[in-house]
Amino acid sequence: MSIDFTRWPDLASRDLAGSVVLANDELFAERENLIKPGPAVFWTEDYGPKGKVYDGWETRRRREPGHDHAVVRLGVPGVVRGVVIDTSWFKGNYPPAASVEATSLEGAPSPDELERARWETLVPESAISGDAENLFEITDPHRWTHVRLSIYPDGGVARFRVHGEPVPDPRFLDGTVDLAAVENGAAVVACSNEFYSSPTRLLQPGRAQTMADGWENARRRDDGNDHVTVRLAARGRVRRVELDTSYFVGNAPGWASLRGLDGAGGVPSGDDPRWFDLVPRTRLQPDTRHLFRSATAADATFVRLDVYPDGGMARLRVHGELADATLRASVLRWLDLLPADHAVQVLTADGGLAEADAVRLTEARPFTGTGVLPAELLARIVAR
Where is the Allantoicase domain positioned along the sequence (predicted)? Predict the structure, then answer.
């Protein structure tokens, strides 16, 4: 089995504002532990009023038929590429089997609404091992907003990771947005060095909380410099840039630059002649949030951050606007990835179609590159 899916971001992580919105039982250990960043830990001597304290989700021993489940709202909806059901430290109390289902709903549904939703199987009931990372690759092509982890019949799970491709709702991508945010679909596609921490931290929401919550490379002992290339969420015109060295005090870069490139295809090399300056090489200060206006009013699909000669960066923000054609293309792809019932809901509520017409149009997908979706209907959905 391929495990490449673990390179995709964890869409369920608390770092991306994921939430465990319900669990039918959590007597021994709280459901919220499932999506905590970082590995589970074990405290040998810690016991509470309900027994051994576990860093995970643990249900009571069942004495009746049935099974236990927990529902996670993905912090960023997307196409799920694989899940990890991590039973670390659960050795005599892990569930022998588990399954994963998904649903796609508008807005922020309540627990009752989620219980009544239509769920589709991503991972059928499958055997899992205790004190282990159980990996399941997923090939379902749809975009999901919630996933449900079921365990059979009961037991404990330390962490639940839902790795996938972020697919944001394009109705919220109008105006100026952070084109380099992972929650908007951006991704790191190349990096010279990630010795201490992953460059993906650069694209996380919110402010960094510690030096560990950023990208830090090793100390360079040659004449080169370190760099990161980011595929932006979509083609857009960059307006403002933020280079944040917060918490990097004695190990911030001395200087940095940011370049943009407008092009499709593979990852561009650093000497590609199409690169242009967004922020020319400039002096940086430690533990400082630096703000810059873009030096170039041009569209970009990639940016490359160069730090000189090395050092840590907490966050990279690239604020800009999607071109009209880019936003329309994002809406078409989003509609293609929605499960059929969710697509029908959007076409009726936002597009103004009768339900029967929305069903017929949904059955004619894909919309991308076909002209099946009328231009006036697309305009109503985009509603810029």
Answer: 18-166, 185-322
Q: What are 299's strand-pairing partners?
A: 237
Residue located via tokens 């810690």: 46
| Same domain (yes/no): 328, 318 | no
- The Cα 350–Cα 340 span in angstroms is 15
Residues 139, 177, single domain; the answer is no
The CA–CA distances, whole Å, from 24 to 21, 71, 243 equal 11, 9, 44
Q: 166, 181, 200: which is the final residue of a domain?
A: 166
Report the DSSP beta bridge partners of residue 84.
Answer: 135, 161
The answer to whether the pTM exceeds 0.70 is yes
Range of the domain at 353: 324-382
Q: Are residues 309 and 246 in the same domain?
A: yes
Domain count, the chain: 3
| Residue 222, amino acid | D
Mind listing the pLDDT tens digit for each residue in 277-320?
Answer: 999 999 999 999 999 999 998 899 999 999 999 999 999 999 99
Nearest Cα neighbor of 287 from 196, 210, 180 is 210
The CA distance from 161 to 254, in Å, is 36
Q: Give me the CATH number covering residue 292.
A: 2.60.120.260
Closest CA to 148 of 139, 140, 160, 135: 160
For the residues of 18-75, what is the DSSP string, one character each? -EEEEES--SSB-GGGGG-SS-----TT-EETTEE--SSEEPPPP-SS--EEEEEEEE
pLDDT in tens, 37-81: 989 888 767 666 666 667 899 999 999 999 999 999 999 999 999
Alpha helices in 64-136 (DSSP H): 111-115
Q: Are 194 and 340 contained in the same domain?
A: no
Query: Alpha-carbon distance 77 to 231, whole Å?
Result: 19
> Is residue 202 domain-shared with residue 249, that is, in the same domain?
yes
Tokens of 321: 């606007």
Q: Where are the beta strands (DSSP E) in the chain?
A: 19-23, 47-48, 51-52, 57-58, 68-86, 97-103, 120-127, 133-137, 143-152, 156-157, 159-166, 176-178, 187-191, 226-244, 255-261, 276-283, 289-293, 299-308, 315-322
Q: Which residues make beta-bridge pairs with 10?
A: 163
Tokens standing for residue 317: 């923000």
| Angular region, 185: left φ>0, alpha ψ -120 to 50, beta rest | left
